[in-house]
Design brief:
Shape: globular
Structural class: alpha/beta
Strand content: 5-15%
Number of strands: 6
CATH topology: Undecaprenyl pyrophosphate synthetase
Helix content: 40-55%
Order of helices and strands: EHHEHEHEHHEEH
Strand order of the largest sheet: 3-4-2-1-5-6
Bound molecules: farnesyl diphosphate
């Protein structure tokens, strides 16, 4: 689903996506183990979801674990997976009560069996909600997502069900994991790094990018409010003239 807007209208973002970076540096700056940074990062996730609901944001997508994060030491990967388990177990009831639909994008088949079950349970429990769609990118990589979509289309061509010339942008977008999400209006990356790191590469074609120096665990209600205000002040032209 592409963004239906064709020009800047000063409206708040419909879809915010966040690269939650800087947990490790937040911890190091305080002389704490990296795990403490990830734990505080999970608290920032709770606060951000709550504030998105208050602000009326309709879609929030969080980059929780990239397909490249497996390269980290096993103990750190375990910490991150345990935090995700805990988050889903502890939050799902409240998220459901608040009208949040939870969904996951990424290669879930590589996750531990119990996490796959939690993910499926979270998705099915909250399927009917539409106040806020919270998408958690877990073992996600944008290039792999695009390759999968292209493979699906190629299989249809091979089966004789699709003409190559009939493939257009809308069709490819509908074969991505994000098919039922509007493109993100605003992508935030915390911690001062300025890159997308294989996150929503197709979907970010016209996203506003906001790079903040704040480490993710310090991202709070005020930071989200500021980000939304900065977004509202940006002029979006989508390739047209101002
Ligand atoms: C980047 O910080 C953050 C991650 C790799 C993981 C993000 C995970 C969480 C915020 C916690 C759990 C998530 C949910 C949805 C409950 P980094 O470790 O790369 O920090 P550094 O660059 O300072 O080392």
């Amino acid at each position: 689903m592409a963004n239906p807007r064709t020009k800047d209208d000063g409206a708040p973002p419909v879809h915010i996506a966040i690269i939650m970076d800087g947990n490790g540096r937040w911890a190091a700056a305080k002389g704490l183990p990296r795990a403490a940074g990830h734990r505080q990062g999970a608290e920032a996730v709770r606060a951000t979801v709550k504030e998105c609901i208050s602000l009326g944001i309709r879609y929030l997508t969080l980059f929780a674990f990239s397909s490249e994060n497996w390269k980290r030491p096993a103990t750190e990967v375990d910490t991150l997976m345990s935090l995700l388990r805990l988050y889903i177990r502890q939050e799902i009831k409240e998220l459901n009560r608040s009208g949040v639909r939870v969904r996951f994008i990424g290669a879930r088949e590589a996750l531990a069996d119990d996490i796959i079950r939690l993910v499926e349970h979270a998705e099915s429990t909250t399927r009917q909600n539409d106040r806020l769609t919270l998408t958690i990118a877990l073992n996600y990589g944008s290039r792999a997502e695009i390759v999968r979509g292209v493979q699906d289309l190629a299989a249809k061509v091979k089966a004789g069900d699709l003409e190559p010339a009939a493939i257009d942008e809308t069709m490819l977008a509908s074969h991505l994991a994000s098919a039922d999400l509007p493109d993100p209006d605003l992508i935030i990356r915390t911690s001062g790094e300025q890159r997308l790191s294989n996150f929503l590469l197709w979907q970010s074609a016209y996203s506003e990018l906001l790079f903040l120096d704040t480490f993710w665990p310090d991202f709070d209600q005020a930071a989200l409010g500021d980000a939304v205000r900065i977004f509202a002040g940006r002029e979006r032209r989508f390739g047209a003239r101002g």
